[in-house]
Write a structure and sequence with these properties.
By secondary structure, the chain is α+β, with helices and mostly antiparallel strands. The protein contains three helices and four strands, in the order βαββααβ.
């Protein structure tokens, strides 16, 4: 399975960020072809103490590298990416992972 993780730092305006994320960005992401599952995790603490480095982590799951590659090349993903760069510019780190589940 291939996964795309979007790690978001805490925004200045949390309510506005969440409103946009839940009502605009997540629906755009759910339209990406080949997406098997979208898991949105709101971070509630740092297990080692102190402030957590991230506020929200989104996990997008794809069945295969081929599905992932096709999804990343899709117009739907480009639209989602443009939106992320508008509302989360400077807040987002994106990672790709391969898992055995």
């Amino acid at each position: 399975m291939y996964k795309f993780f979007a790690l978001y730092k805490t925004p200045d305006d949390v309510p506005a960020f969440l409103e946009h994320y839940e009502n605009v960005h997540a629906p755009l992401a759910r339209k990406i072809p080949g997406l098997k599952k979208l898991v949105v995790n709101r971070i509630t603490g740092n297990a080692f103490g102190g402030d957590p480095p991230y506020f929200l982590i989104a996990e997008m799951q794809f069945d295969s590298k081929e599905d992932f590659d096709a999804a990343m090349a899709s117009p739907e993903n480009r639209e989602s990416g443009r939106d992320a760069m508008q509302f989360a510019k400077g807040l987002i780190t994106a990672l790709i992972a391969e898992s055995d589940d």
